[in-house]
Amino acid sequence: MKVPDGVATTCVLRDPLVVAVGAAHALADHETIPLTALSEETFIAPRQAVDVGFHHNAVTACRESGFEPTISATGRDFTTIASMVAVGLGVALVPRSLTCLQLPGLVYRPVTGSTTTSDLAVAYRRNEPAPAVRAFIRHHHRSDPAERDAAT
Question: Collapsing DSSP states into helix, strand and coil, what is residue 3?
């Protein structure tokens, strides 16, 4: 996405993707799931344009693994998507930070075969006058985004 003139961004969190599957799903007992194993699955994605936000991340991850996902349903937020997965409507790629949401009938598994992440960035004015904002940005510029992984 193009950032307007006078605005800068910095990544504050790089969150790996995991797959959400129903507890009764054939792959639910696997410790990790190759993304290619999901190529014939029905996916649930965020209700966004395909080239924007997390919907874009999910499609990109699947394409990186060599397939085009079949998206049959969308949810307005990740809680809705997780609920739809839990009742067996499909599978979903979600940010690992979502694993704190535990629902009956839902399991999360790490995926292999994709390096796509869900990145959280902040946008700020290049000539930001607020000392607190400048300090926040300085702090995040000093550390590597990989070190700000959601695992911590």
Answer: coil
Structural domain includes residue 133: no
pLDDT tens by residue, 120-145: 888 999 998 999 988 888 887 776 55
Question: Would you state the structure tokens that stand for residue 139, as one six-digit string?
Answer: 């702090």
* Cβ within 8 Å of residue 122, ≥6 positions away: 9, 10, 12, 136, 137, 140
- Written as one string, the DSSP assignment of 24-68 is TSTTTT-SSEEGGGGTTSEEEEESS-TTSHHHHHHHHHHHHTT--
Are 47 and 71 in contact, with CB atoms under 8 Å apart?
no
Residue type, 6: G
When divided into structural domains, the chain yields a total of 1
Provide the token pair at 81.
Answer: 């998507």
Give which of 118, 137, 135 is closest to 7, Cα–Cα.
137
- Which residue range forms the structural domain that includes residue 66? 16-116
Angle CA(3)–CA(18)–CA(37) in degrees, nearest 5?
Answer: 115
Sign of CA pseudo-dihedral 111, 107, 20, 29: positive
- Cβ–Cβ under 8 Å, residues 90 and 42: yes
Q: What is the pTM of this model?
A: 0.82
